[in-house]
Amino acid sequence: MSPVVLISEKLGIEWLNIFDDEYVYGPTPGIVEVAELMMTQLKPKTVIDLFGGSGALSKLALKKKVRKVIYVDLYPEAAMLNLKGHKQIKIVKQDALTFLEENREYCDLLLIDPPEELIDEVLSRVSRIRKIIKKAGLIWIGPIHTSNRRIRKMKRTRATTFINAWGDSFMVIWKPGFGEKIKKVKYLVE
After folding, report:
1. Contacts of 113 (CB under 8 A, 6+ apart)
2. In angstroms, rounded to a whole number, what is the distance separating the alpha carbons of residues 105 and 70?
3. Which site among 37, 145, 164, 176 is 20 to 30 Å from 29 CA-CA?
4. Which residues pair with 69 in a beta bridge?
């Protein structure tokens, strides 16, 4: 079985997004593992799930007892089916980058899983991302073999690290006071 199918089964995701009648978008092992460890360490009360796709990360947040989840995607049809009946989830049908710029809400944990062609656009908004997180943000920055170029270009700060998991790379940013918890996540993953 494919990792997407196994993860979907574990999280109770029955509907996946299909584009061009052949490409299936679904949860990947790397982002699910890192997000789950971050939720365990940070115990967020609020999560924003940008480029939410099938709603897998939002569903994971529910399983981790997050009180409020805001799911954002331009194509939320699969997520609406996967997340129906959960009152603590707000589904927003909007371009995730527009939401990021216009949003006035803050969150403990921001999860960003963009399509590969939008990663650089997301990374250009790191300063905006820092403004809306209370604890941390997790950003998928691509497969390991292509993300090294991005990592070399990124301005490194004390509150930024990169994690590799299951063939994918992630940028993690955090607010003061959460560095030790992020180090623990990195240690557990790598």
Report:
1. 31, 49, 50, 51, 52, 53, 57, 140
2. 10
3. 176
4. 47, 89
- 3-class SS of residue 133: strand
Q: Where are the domains of the chain?
A: 3-189
Helices and strands (H, E) in the chain, number of each type: 9, 9
Domain 3-189 CATH class label? alpha beta
Distance between CA atoms of residues 43 and 78, nearest Å: 27
* Alpha helix positions (H), the chain: 3-11, 29-42, 56-63, 77-83, 96-102, 119-123, 126-132, 144-153, 179-189
Dihedral over Cα of 150, 48, 113, 40: its sign: positive
Contact 11, 63 (CB under 8 A): yes
What are the phi and psi torsion angles at 76 (to 5°)? -90, 10
Distance, in Å, from the CA atom of 95 to the CA atom of 77, rounded to the nearest integer, reads: 14
Tell me the pTM.
0.89
Span 52-106, pLDDT tens digits: 988 889 999 999 999 999 999 998 888 888 888 889 999 999 999 999 999 888 9
